[in-house]
Amino acid sequence: MTTGTRTDTGEIIGILGGMGPAATADFYAKLVATTPGSSDQDHLRTVIWSDPTIPDRTEALLGNGPDPTPWLLDGSRVLREAGATVIAIPCNTAHAFVPRIADHVGLPIVHMIGEVARHLATLSPRIHTAGLLATTGTVRAGLYQEWLDRFGIRMVLPDAAAQDAEVMTAIHAVKAGTRNDGTTALLTRAARRLTGQGAQAVIAGCTEIPLGLPADAVEVPLVDPALVLAQALVRRARAKGRTE
């Protein structure tokens, strides 16, 4: 049972990370910041498996690299054996492979992209058009298109030139440890092009993007899927606590 704001409900969050390591660390920091409480004991128990050897998800989706599914499945099993009761994957592109592992993991996976779509549908004023900054793999896989369609939200994307020269260049820079004014300028230009196409919100649809694009650089809401996922996990844990 829970008392006060305690969220220790028997739920143990398994974070399947390493895609990339900085994004995993950022996600855990957001999970901690999102959890209400005033002491160590108020926070969620968490197991983190950060495996940077998982093959590049975009390269796999474009047919230029190995399938990361075996690594994702192995990592999920590590988390389950370590005691996790639910899995979170703070990598947008990796969600293209979730259908391949979901039935073999033995644990529920909180779907980050689905949570983002639901979050957008709750914003006021109502979001009719959202822009997406993401890896080319995420874009090509149609991950956000599929979910936003379910909620009647139109999606706009960078053109091919901006996707390569601005979005992917910035993502690779952040993965390499470079976060500077140049990286921010690339992502800001790409985001402003999306608002010029009518985007009422911009989805930072790669977990490296919020590390290089401050929310105040965009004139519309910048939706951080990692933060949305963290909030969903806290809600889940608290709801579970109320039923125990």
From TrEMBL:
Superkingdom: Bacteria
Protein name from the UniProt record: Aspartate racemase
Key words, A-Z: Isomerase
Lineage: Bacteria, Bacillati, Actinomycetota, Actinomycetes, Kitasatosporales
Protein family per UniProt: Belongs to the aspartate/glutamate racemases family.
InterPro entries in UniProt: Asp/Glu/hydantoin_racemase, Asp/Glu_race, Asp_race
Pfam families: Asp_Glu_race
